[in-house]
Amino acid sequence: MAGKEVSVLLLLAVLGCGSGGKVLVWPADNSHWLNMEHILQELVVRGHEERELPIWEGAYKIAQKILQMKNITKMICDGVVKNETLMERLRASTFDVLLADPLSPSGELVAEKLGIPFVYTFRFSMGNTVERLCGTLPAPPSYVPTTLTSLTDRMTFWQRLKNILSYTLQDFIFHYVLWASWDQYYSEVLGRPTTLCETMGKAEIWLIRTYWDFEFPRPFLPNFEFVGGLQCQPAKPLPKEMEEFVQSSGEHGIIVFTLGSMVYNLSDEKSTVIAKALSQLPQKVLWRYKGKKPETLGSNTRIYDWIPQNDLLGHPLTKAFITHGGTNGLYEAIYHGIPMVGIPMFADQHDNIAHMVAKGAAVQVDFNTMKTQDLVDALNTVIYNSTYKENALKLSKIQHDQPVKPLDRAVFWIEFVMRHKGAKHLRPAAHHLTWYQYHSLDVLAFLFICTATIVFILFKCCLCCCRRCGRIAKRKKE
Ligand SMILES: *[C@@H]1O[C@H](CO)[C@@H](O)[C@H](O)[C@H]1NC(C)=O
Ligand SMILES: *[C@@H]1O[C@H](CO)[C@@H](O)[C@H](O)[C@H]1NC(C)=O
Ligand SMILES: *[C@@H]1O[C@H](CO)[C@@H](O)[C@H](O)[C@H]1NC(C)=O
Ligand SMILES: *[C@@H]1O[C@H](CO)[C@@H](O)[C@H](O)[C@H]1NC(C)=O
């Protein structure tokens, strides 16, 4: 049953591109798909095959449905790689490249099985494990913070200790818990001993969905492209009724508020606290919220099921953005230079907000302990202390002032891989080294042994000399 849906999905995902090039897409979940969709649309535009576009929405819905099921990745995988008819059909379609997100494994397995190059697009993996261990991306733990720690690039001794321990812990979890069963599966399917990590490491290009406006400066490899903000676009006009509400705010301006599509309902207590805080502000507030209308909702606040977030953030009257810290929303705020109040809840959101706080463009509020006054204070700070707006504008300029736009870079590298059947010239030789060779531990051990031997011999010689001298002196005395 799953196999059938999958084959539908994959066959829909056949996309004409450029000069007869074909892209095969491995489905990713929710917000990850959003970014891939932008790249795909651009690829379609360049290949003049717009008629394929509506198909994408269908494919997306099916992908979502499938991904909601448990154990699903393996089932998808089985449904594809173990279905010879389907594999034969895919092979006959001669794809030039496969696009995948390493967070939904199996894309790379299908690519390997079909013998086509693949490109990854993603934000990060837990502990950056996939990038570091499989992609050999260097991450010195002294100044590259790992994920889920909310650390920044400036760490005290104890924070660096925490960073190293959490890298180690996350590596351990990946190696022994998450990857173990996949290694066997991959070896079985490919018919040779291999591991999930080794297969992932074969990605030609890694498109990372952050950029230096968001990321802390860090070392990277030539096959890593940082394309954060590729989905950002100038604001379009608002719907008439919304524009009237926005204009009614006058000189005070508006606040845009969303906790993301994952949070439909807040507890009554929380929504009351939030609504009360918002009601005390002179600004008008547009709140994306699907739950029950709080009793304390002020006349300056309007609740919407959905808001055109990018268009609102790009509106000249927008003063602040209250966000849960999803990467897509943050990038829209960076693009338009809007200071933020972050209320992170789960996953990478704490890290994302920590980045924005460190760059001076956001204030963080703790969701669990938040009082009315905390939210009011945070909003007043980002709106009336001009440093936050200035820092947000600085990030915006970094995002806008690039030699080549992120979307164009992403598309360029995908097309490069299609034209040249890979990008092997960018692949570091680190992939051929063992972990102790990579860290030069064998060389260090050798040098250590040499040094120790020399020191030992010198020591013995000295001892010998001393004894002999001692004996001669003794004889002379006698
Ligand atoms: C997932 O798959 C494994 C092996 O196919 C099976 O043993 C396990 O019960 C499945 N788990 C769930 C939650 O379906
Ligand atoms: C294998 O793929 C073909 C072609 O997509 C499909 O018609 C068939 O139902 C699949 N078989 C299984 C067992 O899923
Ligand atoms: C939201 O809360 C209402 C009542 O409090 C409940 O009926 C509804 O199912 C909840 N919706 C979601 C998506 O949790
Ligand atoms: C504005 O915020 C910055 C950074 O937090 C702080 O150093 C500065 O003192 C604040 N200015 C005022 C006037 O509060």
TrEMBL record:
Residues in the signal sequence: 1-20
Membrane topology term: Single-pass membrane protein
Keyword Isomerase annotated: no
Top class in the EC scheme: transferase
Bilayer-spanning residue ranges: 443-466
Catalytic activity: glucuronate acceptor + UDP-alpha-D-glucuronate = acceptor beta-D-glucuronoside + UDP + H(+)
E.C. code: 2.4.1.17
GO cellular component terms, semicolon-separated: membrane
Cross-referenced InterPro entries: UDP-glycosyltransferase, UDP_glucos_trans, UDP_glycos_trans_CS
Localization terms from the record: Membrane
Organism domain of life: Eukaryota
Keyword Nuclease: no
Keywords carried by this UniProt record: Glycosyltransferase, Membrane, Signal, Transferase, Transmembrane, Transmembrane helix
Single GO molecular function: glucuronosyltransferase activity
Family: Belongs to the UDP-glycosyltransferase family.
Full protein name: UDP-glucuronosyltransferase
